């Protein structure tokens, strides 16, 4: 009888990206290939792919929408990106060969969706979510990329006339969505959130209760935690009293005392932001349940600028950070970099790439976004001020290890001691499992 030893394969770091905390100056600008070509990042050793070029986008820019919006589908076999002002493109991605193919425009997306978010499903590899169908959109829609079929999931016009929605957000499980509400006549903005099944409104405030929103004439940002358990919104300068967190299970609302930092990224039970409310410019973790409790994740050496964070990993122990403040030469740690930082407060980092964008327009800001399994990062760059913006993909080296080749199982005779689950397989391939404690005689 043959015994098969079973083991679990855990996440491993395969490459030798830098984890130090030194200043790394910019090397000479590497030449880049045409779209689909790859090259090695000269400072950190990662492999980069150029995803778009002028031929991809008809001469226009190709770019990732935003750091908080998932560009990679559930199993990282597709990546979505923008081309030009309005168009949404999808490319097939081979995660093992690190190659793209079948780049196509999603013609079913309306042209009015300029810079509006789209989100890949967290449960189905072929689904994309967006709003629709016109510039004054009222519906949350699901697109099946494989078939082109569109399903309307929720229409706020059935219950509330005179409003449209934008800036869609989605939680894990695809059942709860957040959005900004816009008054069709006045343009005044509020915020809302809905649940698909069973159908209900979680939040509907076209006239915000936060005084700063009324004064500012709109919201500064609203959204749900990835778990869907918390809703937050803010306006004005997001200082104390100008933003709030609501626990949707209890209805309790908290107005944090500390100012909110910039470009917060929603996680499951906490969010990540950067700011200087707790001292020098740093990146923080703040729990939704106790938002005035800060955990410093990274000291940013007082470097201000357009810093963005992505908490889209299923592994909440990492957050992606991209920073686009420009010094020439680089004089501070992490300047012009895309990197991962641990969320446990250890200060550990996994430095991935210099993004090489110079004097960025909005689209040239890196806006780096990470896949759910952490294997890939998409970012934007004008590549040394080239005059155009393109999207690039980093192969991070953070991934699930493939199962090693199975050797011939050993033949064992005699007595062995076992404690726990034991699987026994015959030569014909039939297996059975039993919980065993004590001596087992093998014949």
Please give the structural blueprint.
Blueprint: E1 2-3, E2 11-13, E3 38-40, E4 47-50, E5 62-63, E6 78-83, E7 87-94, E8 99-105, E9 119-120, E10 127-132, E11 139-144, E12 150-155, E13 163-170, E14 176-183, E15 189-195, E16 200-205, H1 211-216, E17 221-224, E18 230-234, E19 243-247, E20 253-254, E21 262-266, E22 270-275, E23 282-287, E24 295-299, E25 307-310, E26 318-323, E27 337-342, E28 349-354, E29 369-370, E30 376-381, E31 390-395, E32 398-400, E33 414-425, E34 431-442
Antiparallel strand pairs: 1-33, 2-32, 3-4, 4-31, 5-6, 6-7, 7-8, 9-10, 10-11, 11-12, 13-14, 14-15, 15-16, 17-18, 18-19, 19-20, 21-22, 22-23, 23-24, 25-26, 26-27, 27-28, 29-30, 30-31, 33-34
Describe the structure.
The protein is mainly beta and 443 residues long. It folds into two domains: 1-15 and 410-443, no CATH class; 16-400, YVTN repeat-like/Quinoprotein amine dehydrogenase (Methylamine Dehydrogenase, Chain H, 7 Propeller), CATH 2.130.10. The protein has one helix and 34 strands. The strands form nine sheets. It has a five-stranded antiparallel sheet with strand order 3-4-31-30-29, with no helix packed on it. It has a four-stranded antiparallel sheet with strand order 5-6-7-8, with no helix packed on it. Strands 9-10-11-12 form a four-stranded antiparallel sheet, with no helix packed on it. A hairpin with a 6-residue loop joins strand 9 and strand 10 (127-132). It is globular and about 55 Å long. The termini are close together. Residues 1-16, 400-410 and 425-431 have low confidence and may be disordered.
